[in-house]
Amino acid sequence: MPHGKTHFQKSWLKKTDSNGHCIGQWLKEDKSPYTVTCILCSTSFKCGNSGLKQIMSHADGKGHKTIANQRFSKTQKHFSTSESPGSIVLQSRSHTDQVTVAEAAWCMKVAASNYSYNSCEDLPDLFRFMFPCPYTQDFSLGRSKVSYVMSDGLGPYFQQLLCQTVRKEGNPFTLQFDETVTMQNQKQLDLLIRFWSEKKGEVVTRFLKALMFGHAKGQDVADSINATMEEVGLNKEQFLSMGSDGPNVNKTIWKYLNDHLKSLGFPGLVEFMPCNVHAVNSGSKYGLSEYGQLAEQLAIDLFYWFKAHPARKEDYFKTQTDLGFDEQLFLRHVNCRWLTLIPALTRIVNNWEPIHSYFLMELPKAAREEKTGKVLDQNESSRRICKAIQGKDVLMQMQFLISVKPVFDGVLATFQRQEPLIHVLHDECLQLARKLMLRFMKSEVAE
């Protein structure tokens, strides 16, 4: 014993304190042989003067007793490891811990099933009725508490666990983001991290953090992403590249982050590559602006003509039935999404006869009988629909667009799979351009 101090002895961990608890359940050795750490109190204290007596004195403290009695009460079972390899010691979980575990489990269920926070109101009363036991008596979760537990409790824990995994495995990662405007009129940027998971044996994508902005300029976004990496402890040496949909603002963000990494002595980011599916979708939109606007507008007008109008639906269904068609309404097309247009146009072409009969015969007839013809004539949607279906251009446009569908479907289906596809990107995009050109060019020219 140098300088008259007492060294920590591992045999002390097998002793029992005055509360009847095994010391090894709540005490662990420090780096220094003259100090120990109480796991329950999260504090270190000296043991170099009188050794075991100092440990027993700490166990007699009021604060330690309160925590220990809750922790080691016999209301529920616990597991902890013992010194013997492969063995497990069965311990008790306190009543408070069991209630907390139940509340945390329900919060995770809310997140996994996308329940609303309001759905948790009056939940404790329901659980007490369904499961009468001591734990449900103290179970207390409402809208506010669920939000707090998820944002300030579970969220940071899983974020920390995620970043520890990325650091420990040491594989490169990419950051991806997508911007949207919230109901509070704020710009929200969802930051995702993609990396190779040793545990799953595949590339995984996980949510990292949501960033809020007023002005989402490239410099602002880059600074926030950089601050987030430092906050969560990601290793910038593993930072491989950025990814997102919009190619323009991403170039600015990529440049700022790349310059920052190089200033720290790192090689920098892999050259930015925008989403190829986004580029194909944008290309189809430009094509529609040249040829296909009539067909697209007709699809939108037909959907909204019947939406929230039960009487119109009933009259149209009767027209379909009288002509021997199945009762079918029209599909919604969102004008910024190519994939929604072709199914909507296919439905229109398949029901071309009922559409003609309803809008050009049945609807005017009903308006005359109800003396609402003037109102119908002044309805812009009705006038556009009637003008479109009476002309020849719209049907040709629809047939043309439907015929082009298989050309785009192959590319879109290929690049929406969850697997590495960079090795087929060039060939697939080349084939897409070739197939489109062969529709109006000679094969020897397209080659």
Report on the structure:
With 447 residues, the protein is of the alpha+beta class. The protein is built from 18 helices and nine strands. The protein has helices at residues 52-59, 62-71, 95-113, 123-130, 134-138, 143-169, 218-232, 247-263, 276-290, 293-306, 310-322, 338-350, 352-369, 373-377, 380-390, 393-414, 425-437, 443-446, and strands at residues 27-29, 35-38, 43-46, 76-81, 88-93, 173-181, 187-197, 202-213, 239-243. Helix 12 (338-350) crosses helix 16 and helix 16 (393-414) packs antiparallel against helix 17. The chain is elongated, with a radius of gyration of 33 Å.
Properties at a glance:
four-stranded mixed sheet, alpha+beta, three-stranded antiparallel sheet, RNaseH-like_sf, single chain
Shape: elongated
Q: What is the count of helical runs?
A: 18
In percent, how helical is the residue content? Answer: 40-55%
Total number of beta strands: 9
Provide the succession of SSEs.
EEEHHEEHHHHEEEHEHHHHHHHHHHH
What would the average pLDDT be, to the nearest integer? 85
Calculate Rg over CA atoms.
33 Å
Distance between the termini: 88 Å
Structural class: alpha+beta
Biggest sheet overview = 4 strands, mixed
Q: Strand fraction band?
A: 5-15%
Spatially, the strands of the biggest sheet line up as: 8-7-6-9
- Low-pLDDT stretches are 79-90
